Hints:
6-stranded mixed beta sheet
Amino acid sequence: xxxxxxxxxxxxxxxxxxxxxxxxxxxxxxxxxxxxxxxxxxxxxxxxxxxxxxxxxxxxxxxxxxxxxxxxxxxxxxxxxxxxxxxxxxxxxxxxxxxxxxxxxxxxxxxxxxxxxxxxxxxxxxxxxxxxxxxxxxxxxxxxxxxxxxxxxxxxxxxxxxxxxxxxxxxxxxxxxxxxxxxxxxxxxxxxx
Length: 193
């Protein structure tokens, strides 16, 4: 009798864990679809923005670049990728977007931003919380926002929980990254010659 009971318990636990894995996968997939539907650059009303200090936040940019692609008839594109977390706050239930502030006009623009799974961030952050949804990726044509060769935009992170939204200044300017990239490209070309 004891052996049959153990087998039943094992089968029940196996089914439970498989359903749990399927449920979590479906949730993450649904979150990605919801985030992916935000495809337009949106101007934000600056009077309603709430700014926070970054003492409890950790973030990094993996890539910031501008490039041309023949798939879009030679139009320039921008690509930003990295991660951002708040200490002691799981990333599972948040919304996240990159926001650019035009240094000339002072206007804020929310960019369509997709979540990326980053298990390495959970490993980097010590503690019991999961930060796997800390990654972000933003990829759009420059004419969606930029005009001519003007790239003087400060980079912010918009983080929302339950409809409450805050902006965190990354203390980075898009122009600085693009100038660094241009310098690196010219240095590489000099080395080749």
